[in-house]
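User: Can you model how adenosine-5'-triphosphate sits in this protein?
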Amino acid sequence: MHEWALAEAIVEYVKDAVGGHRKIKRLVVALGELQSIDEEILRFSITEILKSEGMSIDDLQLIEEEAVLRCRRCGHEWSLKEVSLDEEIRELIHFVPEAVHSYLKCPKCGSRDFEVVKGRGVKIVEVVAE
Amino acid sequence: MSSAYIPLDEDFRVSVIGRRLGGVKRILPVMSSKGGVGKTLVSVSLALALSDLGRKVGLLDLDITNPSAHVALGMKLKDLPEEEKGVKPPEVGGVEFMTIAYYTKDNPTPLRGWEIDNAVREILAITIWGELDYLLIDTPPGMSDELLDVITFFKPAEPLVVATNSPLAIKSVERLLKLLKEELTVKGVVENMASGASSLVKDLCTAHSVSYLGAIGFDPQIDSKLGSLEGIKSSSFFRDVTRIARKL
Ligand SMILES: Nc1ncnc2c1ncn2[C@@H]1O[C@H](COP(=O)(O)OP(=O)(O)OP(=O)(O)O)[C@@H](O)[C@H]1O
Ligand SMILES: [Mg+2]
Ligand SMILES: [Zn+2]
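Assistant: Here's the modeled complex, given as structure tokens:
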């Protein structure tokens, strides 16, 4: 459960962003499809760590973001539905999403020179203090 | 997270990096903008030598698209590192060892600038080091993403710069020393594949007021010993590196 490590980073960032406030009204975190984050574990971790810091949160929203990849060679844009990724490889990409370049190629032209346009990993969308 | 660059102060991962390195007493990146001068062999051997001297040591392979420290160490990359509220670097020869190769295996993994930086930030945010006396960092040649990330994220870092007595290496290392000295304190220069006949590396140190940490002689057998810890430790390369380790 390396989600815990990411949750620690999120809380560290949030603490800074709300500058001393103890109550968070809303925190919105996007979960990029590529990183296959376990939503429940992340929710649990963020809540627990906030609690241990003497902070509370009203509304923790974790929203999924579909991955979109774009080939730099031929311009083709694709999603993970267009390719096959078995569980074992998803697990490797889960830790470091850039590992996607080790396992995927552009389904149209076969190039590994593609970019992840959207849905790479965890991203903080909004923090609102009370 | 889109492919667009994220400024440091907007990246939540960056907020935890200081804490992840909080238990590390000294950070020694092994650097050289010149390729093939022995950065990987020096960082791997120094890590093993410092561990043999009774220190707690970590080794991070930060050559993101061309990791090779695991090859020198003979790591098979079969199992993923253990997870315990983060990633725990597996131990090899008494050294906590982290590399992106656990995830990319030995597949080609071509990345462009920001993707390298992105991977570095991810690794630094999720890796849980133990209490360490030394963290050694193997870095790629050139003067690009990983090198800039070492300067940005590892504070205070004390770079060990590897040079050989080729004029090509000297010129390259000279540029690196200028850059590093603008940002931090260089620990010193290690001369590799030293022949004894040339004073180019020593002269470079004098000209730039950095310490000359010692020489590693040319070891014609070193390549045949890679992949085995006993092999490396029986080499004349390792003997020379141990002499340098005692001075750190
Ligand atoms: N002291 C030495 N004696 C003999 N050969 C050496 C010595 N040091 C390095 N080499 C040779 O140089 C090769 C490259 O070494 P190494 O991979 O450590 O260099 P590097 O600086 O990390 O390269 P890169 O810039 O590609 O990362 C070794 O495999 C070995 O063949
Ligand atoms: Mg190397
Ligand atoms: Zn393509």
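A couple of observations from the model: Residues 7 and 14 of chain B are 10 Å apart (CA to CA). Chain B touches chain A at residues 1-3, 12-13, 15-16, 19, 64, 80, 83, 85-87, 100, 102-105, 107-112, 115-116, 118-119, 122-123, 125-126, 128 (CB under 8 Å).
User: Helpful, thanks.
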